[in-house]
Write a structure and sequence with these properties.
With about 300 residues, the protein is an all-alpha fold. The chain is about 75% helix and about 5% strand. It is globular, with a radius of gyration of 21 Å. It comes from Panthera leo.
Length: about 300
């Protein structure tokens, strides 16, 4: 399919996060430092989980995939944003914009579904422990992983298909630092009400339903843990609390961005900035800092390499 079929616009001009050069420089330095510290940490989590035979439980299998998804997600927006901070003219081609939008929703949708799978894993482990090894066997885990990747792909394809059918004849200035549905739709040379409603349904409604479902499932789990007297109670509470923090970090901004009509608000740049650049790098680190087994394994891995 010709990505530029039916459109006169060949490129989009990104207006960026801010027009202040001083603020741009400050954000550039902060993102670069954050990126260089946290991103290797995500890859270290993946390496630790893959190299330690003691971390073979489904929880760690999904945690490793979360780290991979978040590391991949961080490459969609942040590197180009850093380059644009140093450029006078911030331009992205129409094709490049569509590709960025596709991967943004492909990996973002996959991560949202992964958090649903992780909630299901914790529910079975805590509320149905006798059935855990049967339900969450390696084949089932791989099937769930394949399903969430497929779900993210379908979600993203729907987004892209709706955008490709819109005509763009000008203007071509995107009031943001990356390409996403709300900003791109505003530039279409046609009435976009129906498309906006479809987008809200595909992204916003599904995000909200997943968010409410996840909160409800963890409420059930926490009630079950609170009423039990098992010795693993504190560990279960810590794990569930961590999951809830990640859910709030991911779904909170996504609900703000996608569950309302695409009209400009003062926070329309700040919220996506944290959603696409900061939080994806932090998620696996938050999990790791609250998981004693992964921290211990990571220390052993680092000590072995230091000794060598």
């Amino acid at each position: 399919m010709d990505l530029e079929n039916g459109t006169m616009v060949k490129e989009f001009i990104l207006l960026g996060l801010t027009q202040s050069r001083n603020i741009q420089l400050l954000v550039f330095v902060l993102i670069l430092i954050f990126y260089l510290i946290i991103l290797p940490g995500n890859f270290l989590i993946i390496l630790t989980i893959r190299s330690d035979p003691g971390l073979t439980a489904p929880l760690y299998f999904f945690l490793g995939n979360l780290a991979f998804l978040d590391a991949s997600y961080s490459f969609i927006v942040a590197p180009r944003m850093l380059v644009d901070f140093l450029s006078e003219k911030k331009v992205i081609s129409y094709r490049g914009c569509i590709i960025q939008l596709f991967f943004l929703h492909f990996l973002g949708g996959g991560e949202g579904l992964l958090l649903v799978v992780m909630a299901f894993d914790r529910y079975i482990a805590i509320c149905r422990p006798l059935h855990y090894s049967t339900v969450m066997n390696p084949r089932a885990c791989c099937a769930l992983l394949l399903a969430l990747w497929l779900g993210g792909f379908v979600h993203s394809i729907i987004q892209v298909a709706l955008i490709l059918h819109l005509p763009f004849c000008g203007p071509n200035q995107l009031d943001n630092f990356f390409c996403d549905v709300p900003q791109v739709i505003k530039l279409a040379c046609t009435d976009t009400l129906v498309v906006e409603l479809l987008m809200v349904f595909n992204s916003g409604l599904l995000t909200l339903l997943c968010f409410l479902g996840l909160l409800s499932s963890y409420a059930v789990i926490l009630c079950h843990v609170h009423g039990s007297a098992s010795e693993g109670k504190s560990k279960a509470l810590s794990t569930c609390t961590t999951h809830i923090i990640i859910i709030l970090l991911m779904f909170g901004p996504a609900i703000f961005i996608y569950t309302r009509p695409f009209r400009a608000l003062p926070a329309d740049k700040v919220v996506p900035f944290f959603h696409t650049v900061i939080f994806p790098l932090m998620n696996p680190v938050i999990y790791t800092l609250r998981n004693q087994e992964v921290k211990s394994s990571m220390r052993r891995l680092l000590s072995r390499h230091v000794v060598c």
